[in-house]
Amino acid sequence: MKEQEKNNLKRLLWLGNVHSFFPDRSAMDLQQGYNEWLYHKQAFQKLYAEMDLARLKEMVDRVPRVDLEAGIMLTFHYGPYRLVPRYLLAMGYKVTLLVSADVLLREETDYCRELNIMGLSKDYFECLDAQNPMVLRKLCQAVKAKRMVVVFLDAHESLANNADKDREGKLRIAFGAHYFYWRTNMLKLAQRLGISVSVTHMEVRKQGDQQSWQMRIPQIVLSTRDKNRQDALLKAFEVLQQTFQAMIAGDWTAWENWTLLHRYTVVKKQNRSASINSTGSWLMPFTLGHKAYLFDIATRGFFEVVCKNK
Prior knowledge:
With about 300 residues, the chain is α/β, with parallel strands linked by helices. It has eight helices and 13 strands.
């Protein structure tokens, strides 16, 4: 698939996902939001190259020290989120990053290079494969070794995963005109074992006419003293939801996951049709592999345009 075709497909899925959560937004708002989202991605890549560990260390040394217990640091794929582990390294913490297998090698290579430049041992940074069946045990071992384990919370929106039998292990998050779920097994494990959990994310700070992205001061979600408190989990869920809603309200176009929600959407069989029968659909034409299609933003359905010879 050509790069241009990939970009067109990504754009259509982005528009469809945003429209499902914000159906009141006009086509102009959606397109403007997508343009801002693209601008953010390009700006963040430049920021990653500029904000190395040495520069971040100079920044954190100029502000009051925030001491955190070794434990789990929750964050989001929001803003220049890859700076969060760098901030923690610059603050002197040993970091364990929980990532998917396809990201693991890339992150390890980048961080090993920066650690070498800073003269720090490789022990300061490690990655854990999120798909490893022993990942929870390895996470606990990292905390026991006084490391900060960085975990990204993502939207997991799915009709199948929202079934009643699955709801007990997930936290339902109201978002726009829709909702999604966060898995709660890690928080339940942390409370049971008395592991400290905090949350942070990147945010824009303005100084006069200039603005810059910086890591938000971490907020405690669970402390080691919450091990036997019955209401601790409910309060933790409340803090996480408020944090997420405030983050999105700051700039909803800076959330990377808009393009990923479609991966978890299950289309019911009865909704599949060889023709478009929905009323008031927004249809966008595009080409892919030398074929013409229409994309229905409301249903996120693809329809091939076929010319039939009489």
